[in-house]
Structures are given as structure tokens and as C-alpha cells.
Design brief:
Bound molecules: zinc ion
InterPro entries: RVT-Znf (IPR026960)
Number of strands: 0
Radius of gyration: 25 Å
Order of helices and strands: HHHHHHH
Domain Reverse transcriptase zinc-binding: 40-124
Number of helices: 7
Distance between the termini: 56 Å
Number of domains: 2
Protein name: Reverse transcriptase zinc-binding domain-containing protein
Helix content: 40-55%
Length: 147
């Protein structure tokens, strides 16, 4: 089914961000809406690509740490809630355990496994004591990035 010219123009306008059109007899020209002078630059295109994206403020902590790459990657996955926990398996309709396999007290989420589970809290306490860091163990309402 062919699209009407007005329908095509409307779809194109939404894609390229046309907001105001004045008709004249002058030849058409394209203006890049992401720069003040209307000229395309790779820099403005790069910035436009990430317009409206929410950033992860802990990226420096993750990627610039001395930790091995596999630990950095796991930390990044945990911050994004992309680890294959029972909760994530359930969201995908996959077979999962109803509760945390370590403590059998709460559903297995990444927050529970990393911060709330008594085994995780004990592990963090031991690590912090071994490193002689005066940091407190995570609280129940902390997120991974907050702690
Ligand atoms: Zn647990």
C-alpha cells in the first residue's frame, strides 16, 4: 500500500525534527537542527545520539578501578540489574528458585545477593575488616551504586 505524500512528509518531519516550515520559491535546503548554524558536524551528531540518556554515575568507580576485567564486568552488570538472578529468570518466564539459595529468606534479587543477604553482609564485613576500611556494611535501603 503506497503512502500518501502528506503521510510520508509527516513521518519524515518527526524523524528529522522539522518544526516550522515556510513555503517559498527558493530551492529547498536541509538544516541540521542539532547545531545553531544548521550545519551538520560529527560532534553534534554524537551528542544528539545520547540526548535524553540517563547516565550511570558509578562508571568511573567501575571501569577505572584496579579490579580484574571480569570483576569490573560483573560490577557493571550488577549495577544495570542484568545478572541472571532468580528474579530476572522469573521476569523472563524461565525456571528459577523461589528464594535465595544462600539464606532461604527472601527472593533472590541482585540487591539481595550483593547487599541484603546475611551471607553477603558477613562477606562484606570480613572484606572491609581485612582491608581495614572503616566503611559500614550496606544498609537494607542502599542500592549497589549508593553503597
Ligand atoms: Zn540470601
Amino acid at each position: 500500500m503506497p503512502l500518501s505524500r502528506a503521510s510520508t512528509r509527516g513521518r519524515y518531519s518527526r524523524i528529522v525534527g522539522v518544526t516550522h516550515v515556510e513555503l517559498s520559491n527558493e530551492p529547498d535546503k536541509l538544516l541540521w537542527s542539532w547545531t545553531a548554524n544548521g550545519v551538520y558536524t560529527a560532534q553534534s551528531c554524537y551528542r544528539a545520539t545520547f540526548q535524553g540518556v540517563t547516565g550511570c554515575h558509578s562508571w568511573k568507580l567501575i571501569w577505572r578501578s584496579w579490579a580484574p576485567p571480569r570483576v569490573k564486568f560483573f560490577h557493571w552488570l550488577a549495577c544495570q540489574d542484568r545478572c541472571w538472578t532468580a528474579e530476572r529468570l522469573a521476569r523472563r518466564g524461565l525456571q528459577h528458585h523461589p528464594r535465595c539459595l544462600l539464606c532461604d529468606q527472601e527472593p533472590e534479587t541482585i540487591k539481595h545477593l550483593m547487599l541484603v543477604c546475611p551471607f553477603a553482609r558477613h562477606t562484606w564485613h570480613e572484606i572491609l575488616a581485612w582491608l581495614r576500611l572503616p566503611a559500614p556494611t550496606p544498609e537494607h535501603d542502599d542500592s549497589i551504586m549508593d553503597w
